[in-house]
TrEMBL record:
TM ranges: 23-41, 48-68, 141-166
Coiled-coil features, chain-numbered ranges: none
Native source species: Mariprofundus aestuarium
HPP transmembrane region domain: residues covered: 17-172
Protein name listed in UniProt: HPP family protein
Keywords assigned by UniProt, alphabetized: Membrane, Transmembrane, Transmembrane helix
Pfam (any one): TM_HPP
Length: 229
C-alpha cells in the first residue's frame, strides 16, 4: 500500500488552475450575489427575506466548478427546491426545532440522492427553512418561491451569461467548447461499471473523466517519445 502524505490525508487536492481562472471564479461569485441582492430588493422590497445563505455555497459550485455534476441545472434547481419543500414541511410538522432540523437535512440528502440532483447547498436550504427565524417561519411554503426559487433563477442566469464569456468554462457543462478526442473514449458502460465499484458519488462528469483520460494518455505518449529520442 502506497504511503500517504499529510496533504493526502487531510484532503489537499492538486489544483493546477491558473491565477486568471481563480480570479474569474471570484469575480463571478461577486456578481452573482450582488445581482441576487439588488434584484430581490427591487422585486420584494427592503423588509423581505432577500437571500438564502445557501446561495453562497451554490455560487462556489457554479463559478469555481461550473462543469461539476453537482453544479448543473437539475441539481441546482431540483436540489434546492426539493430541500426547501422538505425543510418547510419538517418545520411545520415537527414541534422540536432540533429534531426538525436534523430530519430536514437527512430527508433532503436522501431525496436528492434518489432524484439524482445532489447539490450540497440544498442541505443548507432545508436547514434554513427550520432555523431561519420568525421571518422564514412567517413565509411558510412561500419560502420555496421567494426567496429560494427567485434566488436560484437569478444565480442560474448570471452563471449562464457570465461563464459564456469564457469558452472553456461555459455553463451548463454541455455548452463548453473544445472537447478532446485524442484516443478512443471509454464507453458509458465501462465508466458506469467503474463508478459502481467505487460505490460513492464522484463529482466529475463522464465527459470530464474521458477528457482527463485522453489528455493523460497524450502526455504519456509525448513523454515516451522524448525519452526514446
Amino acid at each position: 500500500m502506497a504511503k500517504k502524505s499529510l496533504s493526502d490525508l487531510i484532503g489537499i487536492e492538486l489544483n493546477p488552475s491558473s491565477h486568471a481562472e481563480k480570479l474569474i471564479s471570484g469575480l463571478g461569485g461577486f456578481i452573482a450575489i450582488f445581482m441576487i441582492i439588488v434584484i430581490s430588493y427591487s422585486v420584494l422590497g427592503a423588509d423581505a427575506y432577500l437571500i438564502v445563505a445557501s446561495m453562497g455555497a451554490a455560487t462556489v459550485l457554479l463559478f469555481a466548478i461550473p462543469h461539476g455534476p453537482l453544479s448543473q441545472p437539475w441539481p441546482l434547481f431540483g436540489g434546492n427546491l426539493i430541500s426547501a419543500l422538505i425543510g418547510v414541511t419538517c418545520a411545520q410538522l415537527v414541534p422540536d426545532t432540533y429534531i426538525a432540523a436534523a430530519l430536514a437535512v437527512g430527508i433532503s440528502v436522501t431525496a436528492m440522492h434518489y432524484l439524482r440532483c445532489i447539490h450540497p447547498p440544498g442541505g443548507a436550504t432545508a436547514l434554513s427553512a427550520v432555523i431561519g427565524g420568525a421571518a422564514v417561519e412567517e413565509l411558510g411554503y412561500m419560502y420555496v418561491i421567494t426567496p429560494v426559487l427567485l434566488n436560484i433563477a437569478l444565480i442560474f442566469a448570471v452563471a449562464v451569461s457570465f461563464n459564456f464569456l469564457f469558452k472553456w468554462r461555459r455553463y451548463p457543462a454541455q455548452l463548453a467548447a473544445d472537447k478532446v478526442t485524442l484516443s478512443p473514449k471509454l464507453t458509458h458502460e465501462s465508466i458506469k461499471h467503474a463508478l459502481k465499484q467505487i460505490d460513492s458519488f464522484v463529482d466529475a462528469s463522464e465527459d470530464d473523466l474521458n477528457r482527463i483520460y485522453e489528455l493523460a494518455l497524450e502526455f504519456d505518449k509525448n513523454h515516451e517519445k522524448q525519452f526514446s529520442k
